[in-house]
């Protein structure tokens, strides 16, 4: 297993490819993994928001994670999303993913329940106390309806299994408030593709990225440039990529990114309800941005 405590770079929030009738397409999953291994991706996150884990069964979660772990074969770290609005279910999922060999876990706030501050703290510590792999906290209030308070970040960053936070609030003010807890044992990752360089300027170590699904080399090079001290080059990547990034979020994620990967010939067009096919207007905007990025003719 890889040690992700020092993880930096571009970690792709991998889509889960489905056939037209909604079954997991393991052949397409192999193509995606190989695409990332060949194009500088520094780590792979499975079963996140972009992976449509909310529509997958526990057995499917394990099957996808196991397939990716086997295909990667230790070449880059694999992180498994173990999120749930039930703390017990999150712990069960975390244990299952740990058993099949993921290198780390992503733990989301307990969505829908909208617990109070102490409940959110105990949700995380219950899992952190009972797993053996490093964990990344995931703050994405637009999806969950609640946030990890600064006080909870201050407490959780001291836990030996909490190695970082994926910050996807879209608020530079919040990111700045939690950046003070960045240390050699607690890392900050951007969860917003349009804010990677700003987050890294606060001490961030990289990004957990939707954008990297379609331009893995670009996202890797942006982060690598910043970490190497070439902030001007990193900024050019960030600004030049904004049209594509905004198109990838013109409708709810992962609808546009799966449409983009389909246009690139990497996956079929399958989604699971309640997600459905991208609108005509969204597709037109996406194609235009992909042309501008050189991804399609």
UniProtKB/TrEMBL annotation:
Keywords: Amino-acid biosynthesis, Cytoplasm, Diaminopimelate biosynthesis, Lyase, Lysine biosynthesis, Schiff base. It comes from Olsenella absiana. This is 4-hydroxy-tetrahydrodipicolinate synthase. Pathway: Amino-acid biosynthesis; L-lysine biosynthesis via DAP pathway; (S)-tetrahydrodipicolinate from L-aspartate: step 3/4. It catalyses: L-aspartate 4-semialdehyde + pyruvate = (2S,4S)-4-hydroxy-2,3,4,5-tetrahydrodipicolinate + H2O + H(+). It holds the Pfam family DHDPS. It is found in: Cytoplasm. It is an enzyme of class 4 (lyase). Catalyzes the condensation of (S)-aspartate-beta-semialdehyde [(S)-ASA] and pyruvate to 4-hydroxy-tetrahydrodipicolinate (HTPA). The lineage of its organism: Bacteria, Bacillati, Actinomycetota, Coriobacteriia, Coriobacteriales. Belongs to the DapA family. Homotetramer; dimer of dimers.
């Amino acid at each position: 297993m890889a040690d992700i405590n020092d993880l930096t770079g571009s970690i792709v929030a991998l889509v889960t490819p489905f056939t037209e009738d909604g079954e997991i397409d393991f052949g397409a999953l192999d193509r995606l993994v190989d695409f990332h291994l060949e194009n500088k991706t520094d780590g792979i996150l499975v079963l996140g928001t972009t992976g449509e884990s909310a529509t997958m069964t526990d057995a499917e979660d394990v099957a996808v994670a196991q397939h990716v772990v086997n295909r990667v074969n230790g070449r880059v770290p694999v992180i498994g999303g173990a999120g749930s609005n039930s703390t017990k279910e999150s712990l069960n999922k975390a244990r299952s993913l740990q058993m099949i060999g993921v290198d780390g876990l992503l733990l989301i706030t307990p969505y829908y329940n909208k617990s109070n501050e102490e409940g959110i703290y105990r949700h995380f510590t219950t899992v952190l106390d009972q797993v053996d792999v490093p964990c990344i906290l995931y703050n994405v209030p637009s999806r969950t309806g609640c946030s990890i308070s600064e006080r909870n970040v201050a407490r959780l960053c001291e836990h030996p299994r909490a190695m970082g936070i994926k910050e996807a609030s879209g608020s530079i003010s919040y990111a700045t408030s939690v950046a003070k807890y960045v240390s050699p044992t607690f890392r900050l990752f951007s969860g917003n593709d349009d804010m990677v360089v700003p987050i890294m300027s606060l001490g961030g170590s990289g990004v957990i990225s939707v954008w990297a699904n379609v331009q893995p080399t670009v996202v890797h090079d942006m982060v690598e440039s910043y970490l190497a001290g070439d902030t001007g080059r990193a900024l050019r990547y960030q600004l030049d990529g904004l049209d594509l990034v905004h198109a990838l979020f013109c409708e709810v994620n992962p609808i546009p990114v799966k449409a983009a990967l389909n246009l690139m010939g990497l996956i079929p067009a399958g989604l699971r309800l309640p997600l459905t096919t991208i609108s005509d207007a969204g597709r037109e905007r996406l194609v235009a941005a992909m042309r501008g990025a050189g991804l399609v003719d």
